[in-house]
Amino acid sequence: LSSRLASMQALLLAVAAFSPSPLPLRSASSGCGGRAALRRAAPRMPIGVPKVAYRVPGASRADWVDIYNRLNRERIIFLGQEIDDEIVNQIVAVMLFGDSEEPGKPMYLYVNSPGGSVISGLTLYDTMQLIQSEVVTCNIGLAASMGSLLLVGGTKGKRLALQHSRTMIHQPGTGQSAIQGQASDIKVEAERVLAIREKVVDYYATLTGNSKDKVRLDLDRDNFFSAQEALEYGMIDRVITPREVQL
User: Fold this and answer.
1) 3-state SS, residue 140
2) With b meaning 16 or more CB within 10 Å and e meaning fewer, what string describes 132-167?
3) Does position 5 have pLDDT exceeding 50, yes or no?
4) Catalytic residue flag (residue 2)
5) Which residues contact 159 (CB under 8 A, 6 or more apart)?
6) Over 50: is that where the pLDDT of 224 sits?
7) Of 42, 63, 129, 229, which is least packed with CB atoms within 10 Å of its CB?
């Protein structure tokens, strides 16, 4: 009987170790001591879920929150996917809220994106330029297409890149599907794309210090830059190496 009880207690303790809230188990050998020890044990992160323990001010205990939401509280924002309306609306909301809470306090935008919607990207770009807070941008992997414009659109002097990151620029397109419809509709859409292209050329030229003719030529095809090449081109201001501890 004692061996069976010991086996059952070991099984319950193992289950408690993977539970977000420690189970208040009673130890057969130590009475209430086992329960107190479990209550003092640190909570463990749920398996497979990127969450961290966070206690809201005034709350009696910590809860598990999404790690990106927790970082947002520290004004750290990750753009790690294709750019579309949903992710841009979320980032814009975080930026506006943070800027209203503490105007002027820097925000940090980490970019690892293949690009995406031009209109959605320009929405985020405009927000970055309008808020009072500085936006420190950092390319941590790939900043391609519209992702590169957001990288370049950070506060001058505070646009960073990790040493093995890559940046890619090219002219805006029409998306995955070709333009369809009547000839007049195709003409209107083509004029719209060309107008956006010229606007993007203006932004890159202004933010990198290169001439419009050079930027227009470089945007003609997919153009990849290493971190050092992006620095020389004027898209970033600094390459971060592993030996550097702080910005």
Assistant:
1) strand
2) ebbbbbbbbbbbbbbbbbbbbbbbeebbbbbeebbb
3) no
4) no
5) 136, 137, 138, 151, 152, 235, 236, 237, 238
6) yes
7) 42
Does 13 score more than 50 pLDDT?
A: no
Name the active-site residue from 170, 177, 184, 226. Answer: 170
Q: Is the dihedral of CA 120, 126, 129, 132 positive or negative?
A: negative
Q: Which residues, at least 6 apart from 71, have a Cβ–Cβ distance to it below 8 Å?
A: 77, 78
Q: Do the beta carbons of residue 7 and residue 28 sit within 8 Å?
A: no
pLDDT mean across residues, the chain: 82
CA 160/CA 175 separation, integer angstroms: 29
Distances (CA, A) of 59 to 53, 63, 188: 13, 9, 56
Question: Could you tell me the two tokens for 89?
Answer: 């609306």
Q: Rounded CA gap, 96 and 6, in Å?
A: 56
Nearest to 172 by CA among 199, 209, 151: 199
Given 113, 120, 133, 145, which residue is catalytic?
A: 145
* String of DSSP letters for 41-81: SPP-PPTT--EEEE--TT-SS-EEEEHHHHHHHTTEEEE-S
> Residue 176 has what pLDDT?
55
User: What are the tens digits of pLDDT across the range 55-98?
Assistant: 777 777 888 778 888 888 899 999 999 999 999 999 999 999 99
145 is catalytic: yes
Residue given tokens 């990790």 in the structure block: 162
